[in-house]
Amino acid sequence: MQGFQMDLISEHRLAEMTPVEKVRFIIDEVMEGKILVLEKGLSPSEEASLIEMTMTLIEPDGFSGIEMESYPSEVDTSFLGKILKKNVTKSRLTVIGPADQLKTLKRDRNMISALVSNHK
To answer: 1: buried, middle or exposed (CB in 10 Å: 19+, 13-18, 0-12)?
Structure first.
């Protein structure tokens, strides 16, 4: 049977990991050809670390890097948030996969459309 593996990762599972563990986990999974869907996205510093580490692992005839797409972050606009003047940014769902298999076709505030190919 041909295809690809897609793992849906809960916010709880990622919350138990340090930032370094998250980055290593994601890279290891993507290097195995898996597509990951993270319930809660990464912080900006975690995303930067992921991109930085990925760039060091790219090889011409091997690992092609990652494709990563997230919904735009949302700011807490609740009544309590407004009263307390908290600008809490909520990270949202993120899709990550091998760059040679996952291509983002369209993204807006509430939808990510991607093409997944099992051809390398």
So the answer is: exposed
The domain in which residue 74 lies consists of 6-116
Percentage of the chain modeled with pLDDT above 90: 43
Domain count, the chain: 1
Burial bucket for residue 118 (CB in 10 Å: 0-12, 13-18, 19+): exposed
Tell me how crowded residue 22 is: count the other CB atoms within 10 A of its CB. Answer: 21
Pairwise CA distance, residues 120 & 53, whole Å: 22
CA distance 40 to 29: 17
* pLDDT per position as a tens digit, 45-60: 999 999 999 999 988 8
pTM here is 0.78
The residue type at 115:
L
Q: Please give the Cα distance from 18 to 24 (Å, whole number).
A: 10
In a domain? residue 1: no
Position 66 in a domain:
yes
